[in-house]
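Readers outside the structure-tokenisation community will struggle with the description of the input data as it stands. For illustration, here is how one protein appears when written out as sequence plus structure tokens:
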Amino acid sequence: MPRSGDHPGRSLEGDRTADGQRHAADAVTWLGHATVLVEIGGRRLLTDPVLGSRVGVLRRVVPAPGAGSTDSVDAVLVSHLHADHTDLRSLRRLGRSALLVATPGVAAWLRRRGFTRLRELSPGATTIIEPVAVEATTARHPGRRWPHTRAAEAAGFLVSAERCVYFAGDTDLFPEMGSLAGHVDLALLPVWGWGPALGPGHLDPRRAAEAAAIIQPRVAVPIHWGTLRLPWASRARNRLARPAHEFAEEVARIAPDVEVRLLAPGERTALA
């Protein structure tokens, strides 16, 4: 992959795309929050789609994905049931017949809401979306929809063809993270959330940088920042973007061999 200038920890903006067309090269496009279009092995996989202008009381502060950006999606990877990751309006926009990949508890919840094409994966299990292998990975995160509702395990996903992309979903550091080292070309790591503070089971910029140091991907892209806010919260872009820049600085300090690419919503970066 191209390096980001003469310092391996500096950020590199990706290529901007608005057409949503299928590209031959393996690439990722960050669409905001935890929503990423992963193009790999000729397939298009979408993570945790949040595609509208709001999620409950949360407001979107960046442009929504453009027309066509989520067309012809081969599968949707759903990491857990929190409303900013499992947004029913966005999933229904993709169609009830869309192939959804999730842990058994998440799949059961989606099935009760009318979705019919589901593949259940517990952490460690793999499914094939030819020629792409999708493995569910451990995530240390409370995955149920609400505190007192039925439990549903959270997961991340390892997406592999000629290259390998790790989507962490929402997670804190966990012991098994070290098993990913040496396998990941590009890691999609959450670095914040949507509020002024983080609850348990999340990575802040420093801990996300620790995850990058453990996994040692060739490239790390920070996600889960600067997209959603409470109605009364500040809209200042420099404040919303601060976690991503702090992550890049921390990676440069503790994992200088990992290249960080800061993407704006709608920007695409190739894995080649």
